[in-house]
Structure formats: structure tokens, C-alpha cells
User: Fold these one by one.
Assistant:
Number 1:
Amino acid sequence: MKVLIIDDERLARKELINLLQDYSQIEVVGEATNADEAIELVNTLSPDLLFLDIQMPGKTGFEMLEMLDNVPQVIFTTAYDEFALKAFEVNALDYLLKPIQTERLNESINKLTLKSKTVSSDLINSKKLCLEDQVFVKDGDKCWFVSLSNIRLFESDGNYIKVFFDNNRPMIHKSLNALDEKLDPRSFFRASRKHIVNLSWVEGIEPWFNGGLMVKLRGGDKVEVSRRQAAKFKEMMSL
């Protein structure tokens, strides 16, 4: 597991590196002192895991994550317990309080090791986001790390996209066309100008007006597939 440590405090970085030497599955491939350095290293080194400080000069850890197209696993490191708990909701995410305790670090590493997975080389080379990938979603003061397998639907709303997962509907500032180019077409389908659906969530299909289709997703959401996309959709969903 390739690890990148991002913290503006040199002693904090060195302390964490020393602690991580006890884990044979961990390889520290780089250090960054701020968000701009970190973004460059993430794009160059493609780490599996970030140890990320929240408060740094310039951009915060949260702002840095918003600038990444593909977010690795992240463990936040912070000296501010109340700040961390208030700033984000924990989903597929962990945080460590400074000074980092060995027992707490071990718990985090074990948790992330269990979640580690092997992604086929063709998906890596295509740089498309697949169901196993995680994305960082921020809406106001709330943040989530969400597996794409849990996102059932993307819906365009002006210059924003509404992201449907669990009982959440956060809005992100992105175009549906830009998102469509990032997603693996084997797992996500552009149903119309307004919607992208996760094919693994499709529960039922029925004919609709003007040669279109109405798709029902697990959980009850219904999405209309345009006539233009209907034939392609039926081909993808058939044996």
C-alpha cells in the first residue's frame, strides 16, 4: 500500500513515518507540506492512502480533496477533535488525533487493509472510475467518502449534480457531461440529458412514452430513459 503523508509540521511527519515502519504492508512514497505539493504528488505517485492534515497554510485538507479527480483512501490527522467531528461525517473515512497513539493507528490500518482491493489493470489504464472506487463529496459543511457502488443515481440540476446515496442528496458543482466522461461505461449509463444511473441498482424496466423506457432502481427511484438511449440500454441489460 503506497502512502503519502501531508502535513505542514516536519516533526509530525517524521513521527508518523517512524510509527508506520512497523507495518510491512505500508510504503511511504512521499511527503508534502501543503495542498499544492500534495496534489502534484498524488497525480504523479498514485498513492493508495493519504495521511492528511486538515489545517495547513494555504488550502485546507478538505479543499485539497475537492481538487482531486480520483481520491485515494484518506486518514485525516488533526489536533482538533471538535473541529474534525464538526467538519465532516465519517463514512468510509477515519481520523487520528495528534499526538498519534500506536493503538489508534493500528486500528485505522487494520480497517483500511480489510477494505483494500485489487483493481484490474485495464481499469487502471483507462483511468475510468469504477464501482470499487471512492469519491469525495462535499456539500456545505458536510463531507462524505462514498463508494461509487453505493451511488445509485446522478441528476443534473442547472450547473450542479445531485448525488443519490443512502438517504443523502448532496449537490456538487460539476456538469453531467464532465462526470459521464469519468465514469466506467460498463457500470454507469447516461439515461438522458438529466440522469446517469448505476446499472447495478436497476431493478425493473418498463416501456414508456414515445419509445422510451422507465427504469426502477432499488429503493424506489424511477428514471426515464430517452428514446435515443433506450435501444442501447436494452442491449446493455440483455444477455
Number 2:
Amino acid sequence: MPGPDDDRRVDFLDDLEILPDITGDERSEGWGDSDEDSTARLIADRPPHWG
């Protein structure tokens, strides 16, 4: 018969990543954006009345 739960040895794996630090929807790819320069994208998306 095994002993109480307090006597069990638990090994922790410090290098195991259970949850990522940044999720996919926090990255630009999650919003459908590419890795291109955001300044170039903003200039290309400029409205015509801005001249």
C-alpha cells in the first residue's frame, strides 16, 4: 500500500513550456498582418484626400 500523497516525489521540468508567453492572437500574424514594414503599409493605405 502506497504512502500518503505528501510522501510522493514530484519532478518539475523547468525547461518544459506549458503555456506560451505570447499567444498567436497577440502577434501580427494572428490579425492577418505580415512582417513587412508597418511604415510602408501605412503610407500605402493613406487616403487619397491626404494628397
